[in-house]
Amino acid sequence: MLNMMIGFFKDYFKYKESAKKQQRWMEKYCEQNNYAINPSWMMATNLKSNLCEMEETFGKRYCPCFEPSGEKELDKKMMCPCEFVEDEIKEYGTCHCALFGPADLSKEEWKASSQRLMDEYQVPKNLKDGVLDTRGMPLDPRRGMMIPDMMHQVKSTLNGYKGKALKVIVESEQEVKNLESIAKYRGYGISSEKVESHFEVALSL
Ligand code: SF4
Questions:
Q1: Ligand 1 atom, smallest distance to 65 CA
Q2: Which of 129, 181, 174, 117 minimizes the C-alpha distance to 155?
Q3: pTM higher than 0.90, yes or no?
Q4: What residue ranges line ligand 1, CB within 6 angstroms?
Q5: Which of 5, 49, 59, 168 has a CB 3.0–4.6 Å from the CB of 11, allowing a cystine?
Q6: Residue pLDDT, tens place only, 156-180
Q7: What is the CATH number of domain 15-121?
Q8: Are domains 15-121 and 127-204 of this chain identical in fold?
Q9: Within its chain, how far is the Cα of 72 from the centroid?
Q10: Looking at the domain covering 127-204, what would its CATH class be?
Q11: What pLDDT is recorded for position 98?
């Protein structure tokens, strides 16, 4: 929890200025669709920081909850605000990331959807002796992508991680590419190799 809070405030100060740009389009989008932004300052701030980080890491405003899939059509659909908002509002009360919801959503409904999201991302990670195996997480039914995806598993592992190296096992070549973008943005060393049906990626922190 402490590491999560440290990470939150680090990102808050890092993206404080660029988050204002996110806030502007989000307000306009909500006004046009009769939606609202999550009323929790922490949730909304965290998601805005994540949007800024996605833009800076991958060059596009991808959903803060899913790394790029490498499939052109799906990635287009996953740009925020994504194509799944309406459908997910019907299911969860808000979009998947609990950033947008109907303007008249009650405080309790916002809280419930935010809790659903946090529960999805606080699953135990498969981390042992400096090796993080990111495979095998449940799939989101709309996007066909893991929850939490490789990127979120790595990011939360690195929050407060004391080691100088982390080996990450991933399923696909696209995940290797995403890790390369993350490493470049964060200034980590990286090397990778294909081993049987998966990839092993070594990060020097
Ligand atoms: S789920 Fe919400 S935050 Fe994620 S891309 Fe869709 S609209 Fe944006």
A1: 4
A2: 181
A3: yes
A4: 63-65, 80-82, 84-85, 95-97, 99-100
A5: 49
A6: 899 888 899 999 999 999 999 999 9
A7: 3.90.460.10
A8: no
A9: 18
A10: alpha beta
A11: 98
